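Why do we care about 3D structure at all? Because function follows from shape, and shape follows, mostly, from sequence. That is the central idea of this module. The next example makes it concrete: a single protein chain, its amino acid sequence, and then its structure expressed as tokens.
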Amino acid sequence: MNPKYRKTVIAGNWKMNMLNSQVKPFAEELKGIVNKPKWCDVVVCVPYIMAPAAMKAFKDCRVEVGVQNLNENEKGAFTGEVSASMLADLGVKYVIIGHSERRQYYGETDISVNKKVHAAINAGLTPIVCVGESLEQRELGVTLELIDYQVKTALAGVPAEKMRKVIIAYEPIWAIGTGKTATAEQANEVCAEIRAVIRKLYGARIARAVTIQYGGSMNDGNAAELLAQPDIDGGLIGGASLVATKFAGIINAANKE
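And the structure:
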């Protein structure tokens, strides 16, 4: 990470876990053990239904609230969906877009990810855009080519002046929820490639300012090593974000000078 040029962001992804009644106790425990964020921003991305409780629970500390998906349409006959403007009106600040589980289970494509990125930016939300390869794709040696395509497609049509509001999360699919983690060098290689793509699209100054997270099973044990890499600017944290002590360990690792 390089806090001189860009924000370090530690974002928890609770997925379909926790209950409303558990949000406040979690927040109180986290606030009691985490060091005051100095170098990093902290986000908790919760299921839609928990957003109001989370905003209330974290209102007196530097933890922002996000959610895990949105619909690319502004409004209409889309039963069960939630729009970007609804989230912004609620007070949500961040939204995860294109997580591999959304792609795998709900048929999201690179094109739909691009539409959702535009919807989020237009509503004033910060999108955390997920890209990553499967184990088969890595073994075929096409990781960097695939990442290039995903990043270019996700950012198609996004104006340069909006890029500071975009976070890219590299999440190797083979390392999500498996306990496997890319080595620090492997993770940084792909994050550096993402930055190179952004440099080609928008120039060096903007590329230097964009936050790029690693999202493959980062935990309190490996966070310091991963965050020491020059192109890894934080983490999109799954299981470890559900345990206050583990999440605090990652945040504290990001706060070290």
